[in-house]
Amino acid sequence: MAKQVVATPTLFIDGKWEHASDSKTSQVLNPYDGSVLAEVDEATPDDARRAIAVAKTFFCESDWRDRPIVDRCALLVRFADLLQERKEELAEIETLDTGKTLNESKIDIDDVTTVFRFYAQEARKLALEKHIKGDAIPDSVQSIVVHEPVGVCVLITPWNYPILQLCWKLAPALAVGNVVIMKPSEVTPLSTVYLTRMLVDAGFPPNAVQLLTAKGATIGPILTESEDVDLVSFTGGLGTGRSIIKSCADTVKRCTVELGGKNPNVVFADCDLAWAVDNVITAIFTHSGQVCSAGARLIVEDSIADQLVAGVVERAGQIVMGNGMDPTSETGPLVSAQHLAKVEEYVKIARDEGASILCGGTRPDPAKQPDLAKGYFFLPTVIDRCNRTMSIVQEETFGPILTVERFKDGDEKGAIALANDTKYGLAGGVQTKDQARALRVARQLRHGTIWTNTYGAYTAQAEWGGFGLSGNGRELGSKGLDEYVETKHIWSETKPALMGWFKGGAHM
Ligand code: TXE
User: How far apart (Å, rounded) are the C-alpha atoms in residues 138 and 155?
Assistant: First the structure.
């Protein structure tokens, strides 16, 4: 095997790098060509139990949670600096492991740098004690609301944005003094291994961060059912999310989940055509559609529908797929053979349901693009003649697949009804030159993020999360910090007196 992309061992428990207790490992593959990138350790249930025990002891017995907030925030800033210093190396690891372009990996690193800097500021606000005064509070009482870390937090992350999804959780969790156990996707664990080394290099106490590389099914239930874990934050698929919520129920632990979406992109007829085509293809085909907020459902006003769809098909055919390490590639492969098979199956179902595949729908032809033959590539696909009852319209394919639905000219309500007709509710777009209409429709959409006249941007300062089956809780923004905070009220009597509720005891 070629040189490992990250060094082994890959479990980080009790401040030490370790192999799995049964020495088992698994291979991590490059989705561009199926080659082996690394052999990582596969944590056993016993390894997971030990990580939990170490985390719990460290949370309860160390001074980490009581350190001045400015000290922890300084570590966040140091880590943000390190992200920039090691951007090239980290981006390469992310690209090799996920298949996304190097440019995308670098954008992800820049984004999370701002997330760490944001929480380094935001956490300071929470450190202030809130003194409550009011008519019902005697002068002799000090009534104080204080904020504390929740405790041991398990962070379970997916394969489409390994660095980004982890850092959205990690920054607020560490800022307020929690201890974390990280469980990256078994498909793309490499950047998380590298980030763990960086956390230690930045000066975070080694025992504040534990890392378990493993299959979800092997150690997931140990982590989510444990009485010593106080919070689980999960980003991933709906099925796994549901089972995690259930397994957190017995211990009534905090559990926030982000479970993807089937996001509408509503285009009105007043848009300039070339601009709308560009918007639509960017919304769906970026990162080959493996984006939870991808604009996978085009909902378009009748009078421009045919022209817009023709333009989208033409531009979809021009997208340059290739090795993410090659700067000329515009998008990479799907993440794994398993995921490719799932996407292929969805196209088959769409055909069976009577939809019309206008372009793509298959892997690239190896005779025409031999360089893509070994990778998990799938052509940008546009599926027309769709309706809301079809599974291709309702289910998250998480691939480069755009479905097209039309609404009658001028029927704003009809467009809104279509856009809201999904069990998910993560994100959506509204494209129109009429700014008043853009905001009016945005307010009516039951989705957690809406873009008008653009698609896909986010900021560390604004909350991210879903309505409906897209999840609960929020990441980013001030609410993203609240998820990791316990709130305590201390009612403190400075002039103790008999409470006088019960009348006995007069002889004492
Ligand atoms: O995700 P899983 P999968 C969607 C997308 C995709 C589908 C399935 O539609 O096709 O999910 O992807 C860990 N206890 N999204 O199967 O299983 C697992 O090891 C605890 C949307 O790859 O949800 C990994 O770390 N953890 C999404 C993480 O859960 C468990 C991004 C996610 O894996 C576990 C990715 C268990 N029982 C896929 N089983 C988004 N919201 O952006 C698995 N895991």
Answer: 43
Domain membership flag for residue 76: yes
Same domain, 341 and 475: no
Q: Whose CA is nearest to atom 11 of ligand 1?
A: 237
Whether residue 503 lies inside any domain: the answer is no
Q: What is the pLDDT of residues 43-61, one digit of tens each?
A: 999 999 999 999 999 999 9
DSSP assigned state of 331: B
Is residue 158 within 6 Å of ligand 1 at its C-beta? yes
- Is 301 among the catalytic positions? no
Rounded mean pLDDT, 359-363: 98
Contacts of 82 (CB under 8 A, 6+ apart): 198, 201, 202
Domain identity same for 293 and 179 = no
Q: Is 429 in the pocket of ligand 1 (CB under 6 A)?
A: no
Neighbours of 215 (CB within 10 A): 14
How many domains is the chain built from?
Answer: 2
- Looking at the structure, do residues 344 and 253 belong to the same domain, yes or no? no
The answer to whether the CB of 396 is under 6 A from ligand 1 is: yes
Cα(183) to ligand 1 centroid in Å equals 11
Using the mean position of ligand 1's atoms as its centre, give its distance from the Cα of residue 137 in Å.
Answer: 49
The phi, psi pair for 48, rounded to 5°, reads: -65, -45
User: Is the domain of 180 the same as that of 269?
Assistant: no
Q: State whether the beta carbon of 43 lies less than 6 angstroms from ligand 1.
A: no
Here the tokens at position 295 are 């604009």
Any ligand 1 atom below 6 A from CB of 258: yes
Cα–ligand 1 centroid distance for 238 (angstroms): 8
Instruction: For residue 269, give its domain range.
Output: 264-452
Q: What is the largest CA-CA distance in the chain?
A: 101
Model confidence, pTM:
0.97
The reply to whether ligand 1 has any atom less than 6 angstroms from the CB of 224 is: yes
In a domain, 343, yes or no: yes
Ligand 1, atom 30, lies closest to the CA of 216
Query: Is the separation of the CB atoms in 11 and 183 below 8 Å?
Result: no
Residue with tokens 């769906």: 284
CATH value at residue 181: 3.40.605.10
Rounded to the nearest angstrom, the distance between the alpha carbon of 352 and the centre of ligand 1 is 27
Query: Where residue 289 sits, what CATH number does that domain have?
Result: 3.40.309.10
Tens of pLDDT, residues 382-428: 999 999 899 999 999 999 999 999 999 999 999 999 999 999 999 99
Same domain for 268 and 255, yes or no, is no
Are residue 381 and residue 288 in the same domain, yes or no?
yes
Q: Which of 18, 186, 258, 301 is catalytic?
A: 258
- Closest atom of ligand 1 to 396 CA is 9
- Beta-carbon count within 10 A of 339 CB: 22
